[in-house]
Amino acid sequence: MDITFLLFLMFAAIMTVAAVLTVTARNTVQAALFLVLAFFNAAGIWMLLKSEFLAIALVLVYVGAVMVLFLFVVMMLDVNVERLRQGFWSYLPLGLVVAAVLVVEMALVVGGRHFSLAAMPTPADPGPGFSHTKSLAWLLFTDYAFPFEVASFVLLVAMLAAVALTLRERKGNKAINPADQVAVKAQDRLRIVKMASEKNDA
């Protein structure tokens, strides 16, 4: 058995377990950490596929930026997990239906003739001078320029939604309205009191 296949099995097994723990974890911070573990193992699989740029981008962008931002937002929102779990059993049938549809779709895609292992050609060795980053950038900004721009717009909307969620009013929160602070006048904040001088009869 090849060492590459053993590494793939190890990365795939750890990533699958981490993904399941991400969904089933009761603590949101622990779920985010399990998702980081899944990302690291996915980067290992990309390395086995000789896609070094995608592996490094996955670690730097998702683990180093997105997950840190996700943890920051989760800690700022102070989500009441117990209140969210009150309607779990009422939404369980709908969730099972959606999960079944996703499983059937994945089975049709993976089991089809276009994605089967027999239909995949054996990739030739591109040689030492081949650049994965250059070829990926060429495809990304020529053939897939419009999907790339759509994906960037979706990420922008998600970022704005995260900012809007953090700006909600919470009980006991002390904040200053910038408009009221700018509109205030000097006489509203400062009062000059005239007092008579006092003599010391010592």
Question: What does this entry show, briefly?
Answer:
The protein is an all-alpha fold and 202 residues long. It has helices at 3-24, 28-48, 52-77, 81-84, 88-110, 132-140, 145-166, 178-183, 186-189.
Written overview of the protein:
With 202 residues, this protein is mainly α. It has three domains: 1-81, Four Helix Bundle (Hemerythrin (Met), subunit A) (Up-down Bundle), CATH 1.20.120; 88-121; 131-162. It has nine helices and no strands. The protein has helices at 3-24, 28-48, 52-77, 81-84, 88-110, 132-140, 145-166, 178-183, 186-189. Helix 1 (3-24) packs antiparallel against helix 2 and helix 2 (28-48) packs antiparallel against helix 3 (52-77). It is elongated and about 105 Å long. The model has no long low-confidence stretch (mean pLDDT 80).
N to C succession of SSEs: HHHHHHHHH
CATH fold topology of the largest domain = Four Helix Bundle (Hemerythrin (Met), subunit A)
Distance between the termini: 104 Å
Mean pLDDT: 80
Q: If classified by CATH, what would the architecture of the largest domain be?
A: Up-down Bundle
* Overall morphology: elongated
Low-pLDDT ranges:
none
**Roughly how many Å is the radius of gyration?**
28 Å
Whole-number tally of structural domains:
3
CATH class of the largest domain: Mainly Alpha
Q: What share of the residues lie within helices?
A: 55-70%
Q: What is the fourth-level CATH superfamily of the largest domain?
A: NADH-ubiquinone/plastoquinone oxidoreductase chain 6, subunit NuoJ
Percent strand = under 5%
User: By helix and strand content, what is the structural category?
Assistant: mainly alpha
- Give a count of the beta strands, DSSP E runs of length 2 or more: 0
Describe the sheet with the most strands. none
| Helix run count | 9
